[in-house]
Amino acid sequence: MAVHSDELLQITVTAAEDKKAVNVVALNLKEISLVADYFVICSGNSDTQVQAIATEIRKQAEKSGTRVRGIEGMDSARWVLIDLGDVIVHVFHRDEREYYNIERLWSDAKVVEFA
Fold this sequence. Notes:
By secondary structure, the chain is α+β, with helices and mostly antiparallel strands. The protein is built from 4 helices and 6 strands. β4 (79-83) and β5 (87-93) form a beta hairpin.
Protein backbone atom coordinates (compact mmCIF):
# COMPACT_ATOMS: atom_id res chain seq x y z
CA MET A 1 0.00 0.00 0.00
CA ALA A 2 1.39 3.36 -1.02
CA VAL A 3 1.83 6.01 1.63
CA HIS A 4 0.31 9.41 0.83
CA SER A 5 2.88 12.15 0.27
CA ASP A 6 1.71 14.12 3.35
CA GLU A 7 2.26 11.06 5.56
CA LEU A 8 5.62 10.35 3.92
CA LEU A 9 6.62 13.96 4.58
CA GLN A 10 5.86 13.52 8.29
CA ILE A 11 7.76 10.21 8.44
CA THR A 12 10.76 11.84 6.79
CA VAL A 13 10.81 14.91 9.03
CA THR A 14 10.41 12.79 12.17
CA ALA A 15 13.27 10.50 11.10
CA ALA A 16 15.53 13.50 10.49
CA GLU A 17 14.62 15.06 13.83
CA ASP A 18 15.22 11.73 15.61
CA LYS A 19 18.85 11.93 14.45
CA LYS A 20 19.11 15.57 15.57
CA ALA A 21 19.12 17.10 12.08
CA VAL A 22 19.62 20.85 12.14
CA ASN A 23 17.24 23.38 10.58
CA VAL A 24 14.75 20.95 9.05
CA VAL A 25 12.70 22.71 6.38
CA ALA A 26 9.96 21.24 4.19
CA LEU A 27 8.92 23.00 0.99
CA ASN A 28 5.56 22.37 -0.67
CA LEU A 29 6.14 22.01 -4.41
CA LYS A 30 2.66 20.78 -5.36
CA GLU A 31 1.66 24.00 -7.11
CA ILE A 32 4.99 24.84 -8.72
CA SER A 33 6.71 21.65 -9.87
CA LEU A 34 6.06 18.19 -11.25
CA VAL A 35 9.34 16.91 -9.75
CA ALA A 36 7.84 16.05 -6.36
CA ASP A 37 5.19 17.15 -3.87
CA TYR A 38 7.75 18.09 -1.21
CA PHE A 39 11.42 18.81 -0.69
CA VAL A 40 12.80 18.20 2.77
CA ILE A 41 16.06 20.01 3.46
CA CYS A 42 18.13 19.49 6.59
CA SER A 43 21.71 19.40 7.70
CA GLY A 44 24.10 17.65 10.00
CA ASN A 45 27.19 18.93 11.76
CA SER A 46 29.52 16.13 10.61
CA ASP A 47 29.86 13.53 7.88
CA THR A 48 28.86 10.85 10.38
CA GLN A 49 25.70 12.71 11.38
CA VAL A 50 24.74 13.32 7.73
CA GLN A 51 25.06 9.59 7.06
CA ALA A 52 23.07 8.72 10.20
CA ILE A 53 20.24 11.10 9.22
CA ALA A 54 20.09 9.71 5.67
CA THR A 55 20.18 6.11 6.91
CA GLU A 56 17.34 6.72 9.37
CA ILE A 57 15.20 8.40 6.70
CA ARG A 58 15.77 5.47 4.33
CA LYS A 59 14.99 2.95 7.07
CA GLN A 60 11.75 4.66 8.15
CA ALA A 61 10.61 5.17 4.55
CA GLU A 62 11.14 1.48 3.77
CA LYS A 63 9.37 0.52 7.02
CA SER A 64 6.33 2.49 5.83
CA GLY A 65 6.31 0.54 2.57
CA THR A 66 7.80 3.33 0.48
CA ARG A 67 10.22 2.31 -2.24
CA VAL A 68 13.45 4.27 -2.08
CA ARG A 69 14.12 5.13 -5.71
CA GLY A 70 17.67 6.26 -5.17
CA ILE A 71 20.27 7.59 -2.77
CA GLU A 72 23.25 9.61 -3.93
CA GLY A 73 26.16 11.07 -1.98
CA MET A 74 26.39 8.69 1.00
CA ASP A 75 30.11 8.08 0.47
CA SER A 76 31.17 11.72 0.68
CA ALA A 77 28.35 12.70 3.08
CA ARG A 78 28.47 16.33 2.01
CA TRP A 79 25.08 16.35 0.23
CA VAL A 80 22.95 13.22 0.33
CA LEU A 81 19.95 13.13 -1.98
CA ILE A 82 17.19 10.63 -1.20
CA ASP A 83 14.51 10.11 -3.83
CA LEU A 84 11.30 8.79 -2.28
CA GLY A 85 9.14 9.70 -5.26
CA ASP A 86 6.71 12.33 -3.98
CA VAL A 87 9.22 13.46 -1.36
CA ILE A 88 12.81 14.36 -2.19
CA VAL A 89 15.17 14.73 0.75
CA HIS A 90 18.37 16.77 0.78
CA VAL A 91 20.65 16.08 3.74
CA PHE A 92 23.54 18.53 3.72
CA HIS A 93 26.69 18.92 5.72
CA ARG A 94 26.21 22.37 7.30
CA ASP A 95 28.94 23.99 5.14
CA GLU A 96 27.46 22.67 1.90
CA ARG A 97 23.94 23.79 2.79
CA GLU A 98 25.05 27.39 3.11
CA TYR A 99 26.90 27.19 -0.19
CA TYR A 100 24.09 25.65 -2.29
CA ASN A 101 21.20 27.46 -0.54
CA ILE A 102 18.45 25.26 -2.03
CA GLU A 103 15.78 27.23 -0.18
CA ARG A 104 16.65 30.31 -2.24
CA LEU A 105 16.45 28.35 -5.51
CA TRP A 106 12.92 27.19 -4.60
CA SER A 107 11.81 30.48 -3.02
CA ASP A 108 8.40 30.24 -4.78
CA ALA A 109 7.57 27.18 -2.69
CA LYS A 110 5.64 27.53 0.55
CA VAL A 111 7.33 26.38 3.74
CA VAL A 112 5.35 23.64 5.47
CA GLU A 113 4.61 24.33 9.12
CA PHE A 114 4.62 21.44 11.58
CA ALA A 115 2.60 21.31 14.78
